[in-house]
């Protein structure tokens, strides 16, 4: 079993903001994998979708906590299903990567990302994979980083994202395929 989590903030005012790129990408992934629609699961503090990919059960989650408390939701799902941290992929924005860049890192620090800090604290481990989506652009040096991540994408960025999201989905599918046959024992 694998868990893929898209980080973001709940609420209309956060839709299409840079900080919610994880939610946008996980929705695109759900559509490609043809999984069920996201359903609010109170016990997980998340909207959850699940299905099977290449014979492996995959859970997709969008934490409904705010970004800085994402670890609460991830921890609830991880403990309920007894998922190893190595079987978790977190999709998140990255201020240090140029807009449009994609980078996967396993066993990586938070890089100052509060959502990732929360997940590391809840799991007691950083041994999960982060799919980092670059959001940095020329506006960042002129703005407070908190204000920057909560701004909506520019029109040009939105158009570029429409082209990039399918590429990101393919990268995540490749990640899942590469790790599907690696059987990790359940935690004790």
From TrEMBL:
Protein EC: 3.1.1.29
Major enzyme class: hydrolase
Localization annotation: Cytoplasm
Residues noted as binding tRNA in the record, renumbered to the chain: 14, 66, 68, 114
InterPro entries: Pept_tRNA_hydro, Pept_tRNA_hydro_CS, Pept_tRNA_hydro_sf
Site keyed Stabilizes the basic form of H active site to accept a proton: positions: 93
Site feature location: Discriminates between blocked and unblocked aminoacyl-tRNA: 9
Gene Ontology MF terms in the entry: peptidyl-tRNA hydrolase activity; tRNA binding
CC per GO annotation: cytoplasm
Gene3D superfamilies according to UniProt: Peptidyl-tRNA hydrolase
Keywords tagged on the record: Cytoplasm, Hydrolase, RNA-binding, tRNA-binding
Subunit structure as annotated in this protein's UniProt entry: Monomer.
Family membership noted in the UniProt record: Belongs to the PTH family.
Job description of the protein: Hydrolyzes ribosome-free peptidyl-tRNAs (with 1 or more amino acids incorporated), which drop off the ribosome during protein synthesis, or as a result of ribosome stalling.
Name this protein carries in UniProt: Peptidyl-tRNA hydrolase
Gene: pth
């Amino acid at each position: 079993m694998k868990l893929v989590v898209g980080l973001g903030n709940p609420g209309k005012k956060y839709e299409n903001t840079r900080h919610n790129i994880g939610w946008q990408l996980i929705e695109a992934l759900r559509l490609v994998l043809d999984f069920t629609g996201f359903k609010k699961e109170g016990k997980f503090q998340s909207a959850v979708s699940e299905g099977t990919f290449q014979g492996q059960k995959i859970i997709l989650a969008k934490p409904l906590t705010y970004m800085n408390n994402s670890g609460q939701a991830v921890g609830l799902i991880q403990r309920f299903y007894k998922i190893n941290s190595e079987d978790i992929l977190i999709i998140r924005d990255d201020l240090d990567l140029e807009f449009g860049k994609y980078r996967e890192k396993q066993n990586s620090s938070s890089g100052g990302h509060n959502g990732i800090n929360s997940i590391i604290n809840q799991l007691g481990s950083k041994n999960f994979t982060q799919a980092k989506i670059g959001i940095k652009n020329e506006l960042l040096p002129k703005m407070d980083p908190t204000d920057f991540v909560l701004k909506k994408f520019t029109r040009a960025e939105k158009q570029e994202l429409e082209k990039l999201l399918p590429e990101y989905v393919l990268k995540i599918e490749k990640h899942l395929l590469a790790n599907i046959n690696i059987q990790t024992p359940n935690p004790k």
